[in-house]
Each structure stands twice: as C-alpha cells, then as structure tokens.
Amino acid sequence: MISTVSRNSIIDYIDYAKDAYLLFSTKNYFAKFSERESSPKYYFTDNGILNLFYLDKLPALLENLVAIKLHNKYQENLFYLKSQKTGIDIDTRGAS
C-alpha cells in the first residue's frame, strides 16, 4: 500500500530536521527572490546519516562533505550557483 505525504508535512519535517541540526540549506545566489526562497539545496550535517540512504555513495558523500566544510567556515554566507547551460552546481561564499 502506497501512502502519500502532503507537501506541508514534508516542509514541517525538513524544518524539524533543520531545528535539530541534522540538515542545513544553501540558496542559489543569482536566482530570483521567489526561486531562491522556494528552492534551496539541503545537506546533512553528518555524512553518516547520508551514508544510510545512497547506493552509489561516493559522489554524494564528497559533495556533502565539501558543503559541510564550507558551511562550518561561512555559515549563512554560503550559497550555490547553478549554471543554466550545464546544470552544474557550484558552492560559493557570498559577499559579506
């Protein structure tokens, strides 16, 4: 039996995980305000948690580890850039 979860429930659970310091988010630096606020990227604060969920783990673990290190150094000044042409994401520090 497949059950569905409402969008609001997912948002609540993400907020709970952020409040418990299990997740943190980054925003697209050059996106429009509405896109920036509605489409952040989420990372786990510990690679051990992420390790439980992925089969092809190495790329996801490496990306998450880099995001953790950058987040520890720059906190709320951490953003990502998403190329419209290639779809590649780059984590970066915003202007202080």
Would you kindly provide a written description of the structure presented here, covering whatever features stand out?
The radius of gyration is 14 Å and the shape is globular. Strands 2-1-3-4 form a four-stranded mixed sheet. With 96 residues, it is an alpha+beta fold. The N and C termini lie far apart (50 Å). The chain contains four helices and four strands.
Give a quick rundown of the structure:
Strand 3 and strand 4 form a beta hairpin. This protein is 44% helix and 21% strand. The protein contains four helices and four strands; from the N terminus they run αβαβααββ.
Give the helices and strands, then pairings.
Elements: H1 7-19, E1 23-28, H2 33-38, E2 41-44, H3 47-51, H4 57-74, E3 78-82, E4 89-93
- Overall spatial form: globular
The N- to C-terminal Cα distance equals 50 Å
* Radius of gyration, in angstroms, nearest whole number: 14 Å
- Going by helix content, strand content and strand pairing, the class is alpha+beta
Record keyword descriptors for this entry.
single chain, 96 residues, alpha+beta, 4-stranded mixed beta sheet
